[in-house]
Amino acid sequence: MGAYADLTAQGTPTRQASVLTGISRATASRRQQRPVPPAPREVVPANRLSRTERAKVLAVLTSDEFVDATPLQIFAELLDRGIYLCSVSTMYRVLRENTLVKERRRQARHPARTVPELVATAPGQVYTWDITKLPGPIRGVYYDAYVMIDIYSRYLVGVHVHARESGPLAEEMMREVFAIHGIPEVVHADRGTSMTSKSVATLLADLEVTRSHSRPKVSNDNPYSEAWFKTLKYAPVFPDRFGSLSDARAFMDEFRDHYNHEHHHSGLGLHTPAEVHYGLAAAKAADRAHVLNTARAAHPERFSTPDAVPKILALPDAAWINNPANRDDPQTYQPAA
């Protein structure tokens, strides 16, 4: 608005000034006719202490006699002596102006947690695992499903169901998984009791596997496990309750096989986890490209590009937990609570 006023004051026609500044003439005219509000003036409260009085209050509050006392105690003590300096709130106000008010109690100091940043460019590099509850036959009875996932291929390398949660049972699952699928470079988990147990920590240390843990109260640090649990429990075949521990184990075994070998994963170019895990995705992608090229040759008018493969069929080069490229995105890079 200032530029418009300067142009018109120098004799520039209003129409040209409007074009140059992007301000319509109607808006400029309306603002010029609007009365300018008077500058606000500072009103000094009539009951405000003078500078000398405030200095006197500060000297009393910080004296050797009262330096460790609260303003409330000082106020009462001075009244008993027949002295009134100011109100308790004014004492606090004077202390606050001089940065002398702070929490005296010992406060818990939580150190900043390191954000886990993991990347896998091939199967067998990074495994993530977690435990979820499966409802038992009656209310209050639950079974614990231990699930370990390869984050690159999304392949379920281990699924065990037990009646309780414990570190030795988690160690047993890991030994079986590592014997079948090999020892990974990193194992990631949250900070549950089983995940941080001595038995699991000792096993991974002996095998020289790097341990990685989520930050407290940040579920986004373990996205692959959390997402798979939702896939499991939102599946139409997931029952309201399991009749027994053996029923839960049989269901999880069947669901694991279906997910690994039949589920076309949207994050894997619609390949199954088994195809990616065992290196069959490239051949499958070539077969799909041949089918698409045949269809494109038969009906080119139905395809907007001559030879491009749909993005949904592209297999990502890497799988991340907290990709550093997303640090500026608060939705994908959630800070610790």
UniProtKB/TrEMBL annotation:
It holds the Pfam family rve. Gene3D superfamilies: Ribonuclease H-like superfamily/Ribonuclease H. PROSITE patterns: INTEGRASE. One of its GO terms (biological process) is DNA integration. GO terms for molecular function: nucleic acid binding. Residues 119-281 form the Integrase catalytic domain. InterPro entries: Homeodomain-like_sf (IPR009057), Integrase_cat-core (IPR001584), RNaseH-like_sf (IPR012337), RNaseH_sf (IPR036397), Transpos_IS3 (IPR048020), Transposase_IS3/IS150/IS904 (IPR050900). This is Transposase. It comes from Brachybacterium muris UCD-AY4.
